[in-house]
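Ticket 4471: requesting a sanity check on a complex prediction with SN-glycerol-3-phosphate. Repro inputs:
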Amino acid sequence: MYILSIDQGTTSTRAVLFDKQGLPAGVAQQEFTQYFPADGYVEHDAEEIWATTVTVCKKVMAEKGISASDIAAIGITNQRETTVVWDAETGKPIHHAIVWQDRRTAPLCKELQAAGKADMVSDKTGLLLDAYFSATKIAWQLDNVEGARELAEAGKLRFGTVDTFLLWRLTGGKSHKTDATNASRTNLFNIHTQEWDQELLDLFRVPACMLPQVEDCSADFGVTDPELFGGEIAITGIAGDQQAALFGQTCFEEGEIKSTYGTGCFMILNTGDKPLKSKNKMLTTVGFRLDGKTTYALEGSIFNAGTTIQWLRDGLRLFPDAVVTESLANKVGDNPGVYLVPAFTGLGAPYWDPNARGGIFGLTRDTGIKELVTAGLQSVCYQTKDLMEAMAADGVRPKALRVDGGMVVNNWVCQNMSDVLGITIDRPVVTETTALGVAYLAGLRVGFFESLDALKQHWQSDRRFEAKWDDEKRSTHYAGWLDAVDRVRTDK
Ligand SMILES: Nc1ncnc2c1ncn2[C@@H]1O[C@H](COP(=O)(O)OP(=O)(O)O)[C@@H](O)[C@H]1O
Ligand SMILES: O=P(O)(O)OC[C@H](O)CO
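Returned structure tokens:
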């Protein structure tokens, strides 16, 4: 028997089978189209997301030679905040999904900030009043798709983050639910009461009848339409991908921290049963919710990590495959002398400057491809340092960081991360921690996995990286980064 995890990421959809030991037994993956219709706009076609989901699930089952009855449960984890609005009757999205990176609603956020609403929003949601989150992305669709607002008010449209849209489709339109982690990323969910909040709904002009029911992360979300995979399969786990990674890294205890390097980078600290309010623009969010008990987290969100590597590869065509970036950086050493600030879609934590755009600084006549690539890789380490500094100012100073995601196969990145941060970097054997985390959540519900304690035993170190830089080198290089960031900021 297996758990089937659907990991619907920003650039690709994956289906991963996990066995009882929490080891991947099969994986299928498919990329899908990114739409950039205007400066700061990022969209996905939810139909394509759905098609890739069905394809990868069928593929991984066929490759393993298994049927629906071999799958104990399905877990869904997803790119968070990305907003889908669809017709309740036909199931058709009314517009392309507006992706978490999309900045089109920054002016609306500014307006609401000017009206003095920022504190109320952040007190209730733990987030900032920012275009990153779903609320203004829903409002934009209702205001810009003809007739949408009237249909929404008449109860004819549904909203969902990607988990909810996939759940709706997987269950043949029978289940309109989400989990507390995804709800906590919308700017509409009160993280203290764990309910949708009418004052927030009124502020963002979102009709309550569009919203999904919010469940624990491990819950009975519904069963798949038997037509899809040749039999019903229970869907018993849902979590936003970054929270799923926290769970997959078994950061169950207060003070445990992980950072995931995929399209963006997200550092999440487990803060236990109390929401910790940051003084430094870190987000307070739901880490996971089990048996009605919420574990809170502090999060630093960086919008561009792997996208920088993709841009260097596809935009500038500096190399054919991300895998070669490690050997290029090894030729340069531990410091390229060039700073690349990848503010392609503005700066996230701790700056939150949606209008900033990227820059490259410190170019000399002998700067070449390998230096640019190394600066791109290193930008991820410096951005992580920015988050660590913000957390330190909130009184949190971890000594080690568990890392995962597509970028951490790169040993240069992990070593440089340790040098730049001055702490130990721990890389687990299973770096598919996002998919693993939601497999744990789904499996706990159906008795496939026993307990959190038993899951803790699954975590295995692949490699540990220790810092080699001295304090002086660390602060000199970091000062150069801060100077570069300062030059792209628009809000000083
Ligand atoms: N060897 C590598 N070195 C650096 N970056 C890499 C490497 N391999 C993949 N990446 C980057 O990692 C990202 C993919 O990570 P992944 O976790 O699959 O992303 P997501 O879940 O956001 O779609 C891509 O942006 C890619 O450029
Ligand atoms: O697709 P990822 O893995 O970069 O994750 C996206 C985040 O969930 C956005 O908040």
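Notes from triage: The pocket of adenosine-5'-diphosphate (ligand 1) is lined by residues 9-12, 262-263, 306-307, 309-310, 322-323, 325-326, 405-407, 409-410 (CB under 6 Å). Leaving this open until the requester confirms.
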